Amino acid sequence: MEAYLSNLTVFNHPLIKHKVSHLCDVNTGTKEFSELVKELAMLMGYEALKELKTKDVEIQAPLQKIITPVLAEDFTIVPILRAGLGMVDGLRELSPTAKVGHIGLYRDEETLKPMTYCFKLPVDTADGPVVVVDPALATGGSADAAIQFLKDAGCKNIKFMCIIAAPEGLDALTTAHPDVQVYCAALDEKLDENKYILPGLGDAGDRIFGTK
Fold first, then answer.
1. Statement: the pTM of the whole predicted model exceeds 0.70
2. Choosing from 74, 89, 171, 203, which is the catalytic residue?
3. What are the C-alpha distances in Å from 176 to residues 149, 179, 196, 212?
4. Tens digit of pLDDT per residue, the chain (212 long)?
């Protein structure tokens, strides 16, 4: 079960811990919940995007011209619909030029396997880094499927970012995709008999969008 630790980053920052605690609270309302998801994505993005390439350009500073670095590549955010949409704006706050693709997956209630209903990417997605986002990683099935779709589309530099994860999901995901770096704000206890994360944060999509 511990094989996944080699390519897993679990954040230990007090601000992230604080926000996750409020996220899990059943008394946290829709507006605050969606704001927390956005803020967590932005905080986690600093680490997940630390390997973006830069190039030197000349600019005019107030007193003289200087050579200074700027981003040399864009990245693509791919939310797993629909809960993953809540993390997109946080990452785009870091780089407004970031592109966004979409993968729509749902879990078959009988087989528990992921099914797809939407897959759209910007035309040049495979040319740069891709960050797949979903607030919760439970069984790992949807994340596995999403990443495989991206690999089949030619993407090679793929990262996965979630807010909470179960050990079972992490193990499944990193076994299937050992080349994908995983970023997680909190590692929860386990999955229950219905494959829900314990203690978890509830259905992230419902809590973000105020649905039942």
1. yes
2. 203
3. 13, 9, 20, 32
4. 454 567 899 999 999 999 999 999 999 999 999 999 999 999 999 999 999 999 999 999 999 999 999 999 889 999 999 899 999 999 999 998 899 999 998 767 777 677 789 999 999 999 999 999 999 999 888 999 999 999 999 999 999 999 999 999 999 999 999 999 999 999 988 988 888 898 888 889 889 998 87
Q: Which two tokens stand for residue 20?
A: 């996750």
Annotated catalytic residue within 9, 107, 116, 127: 107
Q: Alpha-carbon Rg of the chain, whole angstroms? A: 18
Backbone φ/ψ region at 156: left (φ over 0), alpha (ψ -120 to 50), beta: alpha
**Phi and psi (nearest 5°) for 50?**
-70, -15
* Residue 111 a catalytic site member: yes
**DSSP string covering 22-46:** HHH-TT--HHHHHHHHHHHHHHHHH
Report yes or no: 106 and 127 within 8 Å, Cβ to Cβ. no
206 is catalytic: yes
H helix runs in the chain, sequence order: 14-24, 30-48, 85-94, 141-152, 167-176, 204-209
> Catalytic annotation on 203?
yes
- Active-site annotation holds for 188: no
